[in-house]
Specification:
- The structure is a homodimer of 163-residue chains.
- Chain A is mainly alpha-helical and 163 residues long.
- The first copy, chain A, folds into 2 domains: 18-131, Arc Repressor Mutant, subunit A (Orthogonal Bundle), CATH 1.10.10; 135-163.
- Helices cover 71% and strands 7% of the residues of chain A.
- Chain A is built from 7 helices and 3 strands.
- The first copy, chain A, has helices spanning 2-10, 16-44, 48-58, 66-73, 77-89, 111-131, 137-161; strands at residues 64-65, 93-97, 105-109.
- Chain A has a 3-stranded antiparallel β-sheet with strand order 1-3-2.
- The longest helix of chain A has 29 residues, at 16-44.
- Chains A and B meet through helix 2, helix 6 and helix 7 of A and helix 2, helix 6 and helix 7 of B.
- The structure holds a DNA duplex (30 and 30 nucleotides).
Chain lengths: 163, 163
DNA sequence: CCGAATTGTTTTAAGCCTAAAATGTTTTCC
DNA sequence: GGAAAACATTTTAGGCTTAAAACAATTCGG
């Protein structure tokens, strides 16, 4: 007891396991993300960020503000500005200034945007299912639980640094 | 039995759980990655891709070829070219053409590069530990196991598409 | 009411990233 | 030996991404 405490204080802590876990988490995400990116490009000639943005809007029939999107997608504001610009240009998004607050831009999927997204999303879902095919329902539940815990832990840590 | 089979064939399969799992995985990675990126920038004024590349090289005292790096980091060849260019420029990397195969470029950390990386890596490890702090050792083991299974599943799925 | 802080968005500058084509080198195999 | 295939890297063109600064509109507190 005294020994282990002494040791913990005197020697630098060993966090190799957590480091390995992080690298494995990153590998999984990169692998799946790359696969999805490639399939979206080949099948639908669309980029992953565009798809992701449309996915957010599909869940919000009344539209979202740019900051909403930025927070949900966890990307910078400026990033959203450019992404939206291109999607409005291609006719997938409708963008208007809020009537009540002239700072705010509200964006929505157009009819075309929604139709195209739904078509892509249906296929996208089967890709994801296939990528996770070797996980049992129990594995999936367990991963969900552990990742929820991970997310909470990371958010807490981030909040500690930037309160 | 017949019922469930009939149902499976006639109605589109439901993969909502896998989709949620994928989104949660992505959220965790994005969250942690963003946190690490910010800390690297603030503490050491270095970008995450530069750090990642140096991490690969630190594990390979005899150097690596650009393709090795590209495969390990799971990024495109052209990406590595640019990244290496900047790191050679800043004196962190040494780059030379292989004596036995003039197609190949071998890169290594310079003395400066290694020293700076070690300094950053030590602190980096504590950040990761902190981000995963609320996970018990058992959680970590279990996550490692499930992510290994996930990685294998995704690789298999990717190989099915692109054999 | 009015100046100060806050909020929402855009701009800027730099770097990251990809896919595909191009270039140069080595290996394969007839 | 020499053409063809394979390999390693670079180039190209375009898009994504960030952090920080700038701009615009609203809200807050005295």
């Amino acid at each position: 007891m005294l020994d282990s405490e002494t040791k913990a204080v005197e020697t630098p802590e060993d966090h190799a396991e957590e480091l390995r876990l992080w690298l494995r988490l990153l590998t999984c995400t990169t692998l799946i993300e790359g696969e999805v990116r490639g399939r979206l490009r080949q099948r639908f000639d669309v980029t992953l960020p565009r798809f992701d943005l449309m996915a957010q809007l599909d869940k919000a029939p009344d539209g979202m503000t740019l900051s909403d999107v930025s927070k949900r997608m966890m990307v910078s504001n400026g990033n959203v500005t450019g992404l939206v610009e291109r999607l409005v240009e291609s006719g997938h998004l409708d963008r208007r200034t809020s009537e009540t607050d002239r700072r705010v831009q509200v964006i929505r999927l157009t009819k075309l945007g929604r139709a195209e997204f739904r078509r892509m999303a249906a296929e996208h879902e089967t890709w994801i299912a296939d990528l996770f095919a070797d996980l049992s329902p129990k594995d999936v539940r367990e991963l969900m639980r552990l990742l929820a815990k991970t997310k909470a832990s990371a958010q807490k840590s981030a909040a500690r640094r930037r309160p």
